[in-house]
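Record 1 of the preview.
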Amino acid sequence: MQTGRDSAFLPSYWAAMTDRPMFYARDFAHQTLGAHLLGLNAENLAMLRHFAGSATAARGWYPLWAFTFDGTPAAIDYRSDDDFVREIPAPFELVEKAAEQYRWTADERFLLDPVITGFLRTTMTTFVELHDPLGTGVAGERGTGDFWSGTATYNEVERPPYLRVAADGIASQWAAHRALGSAGVLAAGFAAWNRERAAELAEHFSDAWWSRDGRHYTAGFTAEGPVAGFRLESTWFPALKGIMRADERSAAHLDFLAAGLEAAPPANIEAATYLPEAFLRYGRDGEALRWIRALAASRADYPEVPFTHVAHVASGLTGLEPGERPGVVRTRSHLPAGEWLEAGNVPVGRSRIGVRHDGREATELQVTAGPGVTWAATWDDGQVSTIEVPAGTRVRATPDGGVTRLPAR
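->
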């Protein structure tokens, strides 16, 4: 980690393979939540701002793929402004994570820093208009399969036919619109436009991307039409981002995903770090926990593994996250019966939160620092208990509506 004490380096942390002292857009986007939970907010802001500032007209409004810790483009992935590694989901993930970090930190700079604000607007407008190969409003690329000239997908082992728009691309684009649409500090008109675009993309995905024969969402499209089959990131990103409606189709797609992973698990561990989030989002908690345990057992030193493990445990399994408005925190246990999990001193907005789940039978929430919160505890039947938790207090709640005030620890 570079703390910024030496002016030669950006405040930053390792977000790349261990033999590359660099930070990559894709790795960084996936590590930001874990980094926040570890107290690396200054690093997150500096790195995000650096990626945002690298997206220029000369580069087709793509942010650069990777930087060394002094902020220079990583030569291994950059030759010139028209010859560098670029993949469509990355700019949208950076937009989404900017809004996510604002929600978790209550730091408006993640959205209102002028460099970041310009990047958000340009990515969601000019970038999409410039990279719309099928004229559907879905960002994509030319279908060369060469990430040096731009690809539609994160799947770097993509096989022909090469996609012009990909499911991980549209899912990431939708997630970026959705995140900006609920970010309260943005101009009302821009937020409303993003909500409209998110709704339009979700409708388009539901109507045009379902493969009736395959009983799963298609991986993407070439100029000739849809391309079905199990294709790694293009298969699990619709679940990861939540663009699928929670219905029979999403259930069938998740079955298809689980079967594909059983038959051909990803060869690179980076890819596996996404899977707990994908399954947790749709309530496939057993499958998610299996991948969390497998990742932990791997003891892999790829930075994405430990960073995401922190997020999978402290936020994923606990369901702990900021609500839609400041001062609200949400929880939902994803534990099996008989198991317990406790996370403490978790920074959510301006508060520090402790949460403990005892299976699905009871949850405790404590505000250990900062202002009190409104706690929205969600249970298996979908019911939500809304409870005021003042600063310095601890509350225990149960699915039957029981609320007990407990001594603070």
